[in-house]
Amino acid sequence: MKKLNIPSYLARTKWFLLLIAVLLLIVFGRTVNSPELTKTAIVLGAGLDYSEETEEFIVTTQSVLMASSATEGAGQTSYNTYTAKGKSIASALDDISRKMGLIVSLAHCNVIFVSQSILKLDHVQLIYPLTGMYSLPEHAVIVTGEKSPREMLAVQIGTTVSSPYFLQLALSTKEGTNGMIRTNIKDFLARSLSRSHATAIPYITLKELPDQPLGQDGEKEDNYEFDLSSVMVFNREKSEIVEDKLAEALSLYMTKSTFGAINYKSENGETVEFRILNKNINTKAEGRSVKAEMELTVELLDVQFIDTSDVLTGADKKIKEAAAALGEELTGILNKLFELSKEWNIDFLGLQAKAYQSVGRTLEEDCLKTLSFQPTVKLQVKETA
Predict the structure, then answer these.
(1) Quick check: is 21 in a domain?
(2) Residue 178 covered by a domain
(3) Which of 205, 234, 256 is where one domain is finished?
(4) Is 41 inside any structural domain?
């Protein structure tokens, strides 16, 4: 059979047409119908609650609405909070959509307020409808507080109108000090579904501002601030609140990245404050014994009430002694947290999950009281020029 010779210009045309077809498939194949912003309720924060009496979910959303050019106040934004009840989370969200006359979108929702009653339910069935059906980002953070999720979403913060927007900024820029643990959806599920079956999230308390913000029309009213210095540790059965130095040490232990400052105060009132530059933690298990070595790289930030006429730096003996003493103090607090976890039977330190990696399948469930924990915290002071 005689071989068919294809002219070179036809061959080049064939590859060119094939390239065009591939590009068209890539562009139009990834194109989906998306509603206009004026027809969409962009949810900044959502609240999940559950009533054991009525066996209904109580879902609250705070959305930012974009005014269309044809309406009064074009170019302005408003924050609307809606609440609905339903036998499922999806039905409650659909009800909110009907009330608003808009399509609810969780694609930009970065904060989820939860009640303590909601945390007693199945965590996978709790989260999957939000991530699978409503595109909730996996990096959205979970928080709880002294008030219901509905009240926490509706409260007015002094620095911004939207409480979810404030939390998004606060928890994304700083974490690991003063109880500011940033537990996102992925971490929440990974820890609660592990052999430890427990984790920790920020516990928010409200404080009314003693000095209300001033506007053009005078002093504004009913503005609050969020206190993020506490942590709630929990499993499916119970929950407890950790505060002050305990919450700070727990935050340092649990967070992946740590920022902010920590301070040491001696018995005679000398105060040394350090800024955290970096954290390295190595946790390993040998059988039922778990060891955790934490090293904090810090720099000197402030010194008060030290009897000296010299300008102290990170190279001075006094500062290094304060850093060593602070490391010993944090080590003692971690040991105290371990004792509390055994007393409460809430493995928020994740020790059973760590021991399981060493012991294997023979490790029985609910064995926290049979484990040992040996933490060590050291501070390395970086000398600044």
Answers:
(1) no
(2) yes
(3) 256
(4) yes
| pLDDT value of residue 32 | 45
Give the pLDDT confidence of 25-52 residue by residue, as tens digits. 665 554 444 555 567 778 989 999 999 9
Higher-scoring residue by pLDDT: 21, 33: 21
pLDDT digits (tens, 9 = 90+) for 120-165: 999 999 998 898 888 899 889 999 999 999 999 988 887 777 888 8
Q: Do 224 and 264 sit in the same domain of this protein?
A: no
Asked if pLDDT for residue 295 goes beyond 70, the answer is yes
Q: What is the domain count for the chain?
A: 2
Three-state SS letters, the chain: CCCCCCCHHHHHHHHHHHHHHHHHHHHHHCCCCCCCHHHEEEEEEEEEEEECCCCEEEEEEEEEEECCCCCCCCCCEEEEEEEEEECCHHHHHHHHHHHHCCEEECCCCCEEEECCCHHHCCHHHHHHHHHHHCCCCCCCEEEEECCCHHHHHHCCECCCCCHHHHHHHHHHHCCCCCCCCCCEHHHHHHHHCCCCCCEEEEEEEEEECCCCCEECCEECCCCEEEEEEEEEEECCCCEEEECHHHHHHHHHHHCCCCCCEEEEECCCCCEEEEEEEEEEEEEEEECCEEEEEEEEEEEEEEEECCCCCCCCCCCCHHHHHHHHHHHHHHHHHHHHHHHHHHHHCCCCCCHHHHHHHHHCCCCCCCCHHHCEEEEEEEEEECCCC
Q: Show which of 256, 282, 306 is a domain's final residue.
A: 256
Same structural domain, 81 and 208 = yes
C-beta atoms surrounding 7 within 10 Å: 8
Please name the residues in contact with 97: beta carbons below 8 A apart, sequence gap of 6 or more: 41, 103, 104
Identify whether residues 213 and 276 lie together within a single domain.
no
Higher pLDDT, residue 5 or 55: 55
Same domain, residue pair 182 and 141: yes
Q: Which domain does 59 fall in, by range?
A: 37-256
CA–chain centroid gap for 202, Å, is 8
Strands 239-242 and 224-234: antiparallel
Predicted structure pTM score: 0.83
Strands 261-265, 103-105: pairing kind: unpaired
Same domain, 163 and 286: no
Output the domain CATH number for residue 301.
3.30.300.210
Whether 13 is in a domain gets the answer no
